[in-house]
Known about the structure:
Rossmann fold; 2 domains; 10-stranded mixed beta sheet; 11 helices; 25% strand
Amino acid sequence: MTVKLGFIGVGGRSVHEMRDLIKIPEAELTGFCDIDESRCTAAVDTLNGVLPLGRNPIQPGIFTDHRAMLDSVELDAVYISLPTFAHGQIDHDVIAAGKAVMIEKPIAIELSLAKEIGAHITETGIVNAVGYQMRYAPSVGQTRALLEGVPIGMVIAVRWGGLPGTPWWRVQEQSGGMLIEQHTHSIDLVRYFVGEPDTIYAAGDTVLLNDVPNLNILDVNAMTVRFKNRAVGMIGNSPAAHAGVPPNVTNVLHILAKDITVTAGFNSTTVLRPGQEAETITSDQDSNLSMNQAFVAAVANNTQEGILSPYDDALRSFAFTYAGQKSAELRREVRITDDLEVVPQ
Ligand SMILES: NC(=O)c1ccc[n+]([C@@H]2O[C@H](COP(=O)([O-])OP(=O)(O)OC[C@H]3O[C@@H](n4cnc5c(N)ncnc54)[C@H](O)[C@@H]3O)[C@@H](O)[C@H]2O)c1
């Protein structure tokens, strides 16, 4: 079965997804929409230059208004890969049109909006996924399985990196800040491995990137977390590591569990057990391609089966990062309630 796909926002991320999708025979790239039409035409040229052998050139309809795309081409699913601030009406329009959605992380800037979009998805029952591709790495799945039922005491998750060039990332009102934008993958995996957060206290500030024009995001954020299962966590984020990052610091989770110590990267996990040699679990599978294959298959079969990051789960990862941002802004501890309110303590 052919799965007809539309794309809203044809920037760097969409093109990355499209490069995967042209390798999936069932996926037809049917409609491209971007307020900057040149990004659509550039994407068509790029993709037609890298087509796998035997794949016909892509000829999507090109649009600058998402409603025009939804009204004029037949689509089974839509990839929404927008700057964080642009989520809202577009997501609602796609959901109301009954299309399956692959929505990029972060799903919004404000928790209230993400919850509204989540409720709309639940109400319509459309197939839905969020772009947390790390969950599809076999080593991540195996790490989760080995921690299942084991008491976890502590997790450390640090993400130090550089400041992305895209201008909207450095504006708090447009990206939501780097904890929400960049660190969301690690924090999603913290939830996947450790469980749900209960209370968070974060200290954050802008101390290293004050000389960057038009920047008002926190450039350091250090969170302490108490999880509902009594584990505790230390989570640190900075986009100011221009001098580089020491090995085994960034994008790696360290988990201390009962008789197991785990260092989990996105494609490799090292497991220590008392009296045993260190065990390494690796995966060389492309997790982003696996995510796209799972999504296309789910849309073809009209099922959530195979989707490891549905919107309602991604909403919880978003609430976690949002709580870290809010705690730093308020300089107060916050609690995440069961119905995903972030309440100052
Ligand atoms: N899962 C991942 O690993 C991953 C990797 C990179 C980016 N992302 C996420 O993908 C999203 C997009 O990032 P990007 O790097 O592609 O950004 P980008 O700025 O390169 O592209 C965004 C595109 O959206 C377009 N756009 C803005 N408003 C629009 C509107 N109203 N209608 C249609 N198009 C509109 C812009 O013109 C631009 O071309 C971000 O949320 C980012 O965090 C995820």
